[in-house]
Amino acid sequence: MELILAADPMCSWCYGFSKQMELLLQRRPDASLKIVLGGLRAGATDVLDEAGKQFRLHHWSKVEEASGVPFNREGLLARNGFVYDTEPVCRAVVTARILQPDADLLKVFRALQHAFYVNALDTTDGAVLADVGSRALGGLGHFVTAEEFLATWKKGSTIEEAAKDFATVRGMGVSSFPTLFLKKGGALRKVGAGYAHVDELEKHLAAMAA
Asked: Which residues does 48 contact at the CB level (< 8 Å), separation at least 6?
């Protein structure tokens, strides 16, 4: 079973959903997962103001209620001059994929989410991303230094590959994140769009298989 997830690490609903995605893969060890990066706010330049913070806190409460994942609200409120650009963190996931094509990318994805939502780290900063990304790969037995990670993250070819992911997602007709697809017979079939519990995902997949 081949699954394809269109998502962005700095999308709060993707953060809640990735926990369910991990549970699904534990239940279905025969399934493989490919993550295509969404670029939700790739290239954004506007500074996160108080209204923007409150808007996100509202969504965070909904995600927390639905999924149980923790959020560091104080970390968000304390940010000053923060530009909510999701391209750098999406590129960090792409970097991990380039450096270690066989790595469990969902675990890297989740480590970057945890860095932003729980540890309140600046996931638009290359050095921060390199530290988190290299540690995540190391935890999976793929030893890459932060310096190697950062050098690959900065490459023009990596920037281009991240942009290709964004274009692929648009070409798939994705209008919201996360969106999960089942690839069957060369065709993509949508399992669901938005947050869903693992039990619901199981039901959808069973119905699609039947």
From this structure: 56, 79, 82, 83, 84
